[in-house]
Amino acid sequence: MIFFLAADAARLARAGYVLAREGVLSLMSPVAAPPLARPLLRIARLIARKDAGSRPARFSAALSRLGPSYVKLGQFLATRPDVVGASVARDLEVLQDRMPIIGQEVAEATVAEAFERPVREVYAQFGPAVAAASIAEVHKAEVEDKDGTRHTVAVKILRPGVERRFSSDMGSFRRIAHFAETNFAEARRLRLETVVDTLARSVSMEMDLRLEAAAYAELAENIGADKEIHVPRVDWDRSGREVLTTEWIDGIKLSDKEALVAAGHDLKEIARVIMQSFLKQAMRDGFFHADMHPGNLFVDAQGRLVIVDCGIMGRLGLKERRFLAEILYGFITRNWRRTAEVHFEAGYVPLHHSVDDFALAIRAIGEPIHSRTADQISMARLLALLLEVTALFDMQTRPELLLLQKTMVVVEGVARSLDPQLDMWKTARPVVEDWIAGNLGPVGQLQRAGGGLSEMAHFATTLPGLLTRTARVMEQLDVATRDGLSLSPASLEGIGRAEAKRAFWGNLALWVIAAALVGIWLG
């Protein structure tokens, strides 16, 4: 434990120096900081680079210097304005992976090891990297069918050793979060340990490219009937844990508006498709792309919106989807009372608070933005107000809803960049009303009733067996406790061995630490 604490302290010290040197800590006001932190912030201003650049540039430079774990942490915290604040979250939104490429030889060796054969036998042509991120990089390649036809593909390759680096850093993040929750009430409300666990799960899934391939397939299956959307096909024969091969997309990035207009695409129509596609994914399917920034969105020659990079996905249960639909519908119809009630029904707001007071707070957020076009809505201000309300009414952090909320902000921002006059609420209304009609209306009620009857019938068929097993357990418990509980000699011997083993490793750790300290002292 002492070793881990020392390592964590060293990592924190290095991270603090890099953040100070790149000018990130200079963005914080010493007046707003805790008293103990104010001298450190003043020192940070003295060592900051003079040419640190803009706020986003400072974050990008610092996190890139700290390595892939911190780049990924920065991207993740962009989805958590409740933790870092709305302004910092906005700065982190534009954080781009600026990692060096792993090198052509290393990439080809990774492919050869993954498929146990030379690269030339896997791909007809394997080009250099076209993009490098914190976890993986992408190469352009060609594959050849049996009839000699060639197809262009995108090959995503995991960085060698990235799992070990992430595992070490995640351990430090967990211990720091545990310390914060143990000592600070606000950290407990924000559930920082849950934040780190969510990040760790997300990263572990991203580092197994088989799971990303499955996400591509599930998303494509869900939107199969949506002719306006396309998801690249997965080449399963050339995909595995460390390599993912998908259809190559020749399209125009949404960030290139001039090229979109020159190609004859309707920017307002694209904006509508983006917004409604995301809402369908979230509410209809309960499985949504959670990283829909312009770099992951293209328009192909057929005018379809193409979504790539399924490394970060969100999933919502029926309860969360109903919550989302009713909240959006409440804002659309200005039914603030119902919007407040939904929070209480979902258990997100403690019952000791007043529904009327919460409805008043929701009205304060909703009225200023109702019936305004997107260019008149400050999403940053709206987000800040929502966060103030959650703190005021003791709402605990809901990671899945915050990821959804933040993705909605990003999607709305992308759509607004294409159509500044887009009315988000008017665009969302048809999707929300369709979901409510199908799930909360008469048809939905009948479907749920049928599902409930089916579950009751299934329970009735399993009830006799359940009662028999319960009676058998009770008989065994009665026999075991008739003369008092006792442990068998084998159990006692096992406990003794475990205690002896624990004592041995504890003593060994102490001797190792002592030897290290003596070595440092003598050196």
Automatic annotation (TrEMBL):
It comes from the Bacteria. The chain crosses the membrane at residues 504-522. InterPro entries: ABC1_dom, Kinase-like_dom_sf, UbiB, UbiB_kinase. The keyword Transcription does not apply. The keyword Membrane applies. Residues 95-343 form the ABC1 atypical kinase-like domain. SUPFAM superfamilies: Protein kinase-like (PK-like). Keywords: Cell inner membrane, Cell membrane, Membrane, Transmembrane, Transmembrane helix, Ubiquinone biosynthesis. Coiled coil: none annotated. Pathway: Cofactor biosynthesis; ubiquinone biosynthesis [regulation]. Belongs to the protein kinase superfamily. ADCK protein kinase family. This is 2-polyprenylphenol 6-hydroxylase. It comes from Xanthobacter oligotrophicus.
